Amino acid sequence: MSLPFEIPPVPDGSARQSPFTPTFGAIPPLLADRQNLINDFAYALDSGPGARGRATLVTGTRGVGKSVMLRVFRDVVESRQWLTVSARATSGFVDRLTTARLPEALSKLDTANTTRTRLRGGSLSALGFGGSVNTESENTAPVTPDFHHQLIRTLEILDDHGTGLLLTLDEVHRSHLEELQEVADALSTAVADGAPFAFAAAGLPETINGLVNDDVSTFLRRAERVNLGNLSSAGAAVGLRVPIEAADKRIGDEALSAAVESSSNYPYLVQLIGDNAWRAAGSAEEIALDHVQEAAQDAKETMFRQIHEPTLASLPERERQYVAAVSASGGTARTGAVADRMGLSASHAGVFRDRLINRGVITSPRRGEVEFSIPYTADFLRSEQAKAGKTSTRG
User: Fold this and answer.
1) What is the value of pTM for the model shown?
2) φ, ψ dihedrals at 152, nearest 5°
């Protein structure tokens, strides 16, 4: 029976895979404009307990590479023969760290320290040779430890083995403040003890700013801040050209310039446009301008689904109105003009401005001005307005 669709043919051996990684958290083929951050973290690690940067908070808007930096930090510590324990900071993450992640790390090194062997039966001949012995392992610490106990115990054992531990938390959110407090308290103890550990957490600006400004813990307030932004134009160009050439294709100067411009130097868009352009080029040896133009249009639609919709859907009504007022000015606006459009005083509108900056939706490039942090936000809003207009016309 024939299928009501066409199955694409299996690629033959001549097909070359795209070198780009347009997947959240995946390390790109070339990590442009981030080497200094990697160097700083490695220096902190090598400088011993108490070094600035051994506790780092990574922040930035969606798509700038926060999860990527955590993965890179893990690679750095593993190059020093340290262990890593990682978790997404979703509900119950402290329990997962306590009962699964830390014991798993401990099991790699701690067999001799947590168990002992005792004689169950059998016989021993003279001088201990011959005979038979039955043994069993008995845990010497049968109590169920909390996170604080488990972490400190793990660090003590790792220290005995001449190694250390990196703990990373991704997608940190203030809705899990109690659990973050528990982790921060335990880490503060580890700092005071000079334990061999490092800590890195990633979250949106709203979350990280809240953790630092609120009275959550001295440990978090003193942590190093890494604010990831867009790439430089040169970084975006290198991030596109070098992987393409390393994978035995070429990209012309005009096509490269168009790709960089379309990406707005936004890290996720660099990967997305690169991947789309590679696919559009097919078996061609060179990625041309028309391939990039097709890639950029497809990338914009992907951005709408994966970045803009989840970012803007959760905004309260007044903040959405502020966003709409910025969009009416083309994506860059005077704060006074935004307040006028909303019918609010400058100080009242400023409350929503500050909230949106904390959420990573807008930024203030100059005093008295705001603009969108994420490329194509104005395009997305216009698209949504057009859809709403068509729906109301049909109604």
Assistant:
1) 0.83
2) -65, -40
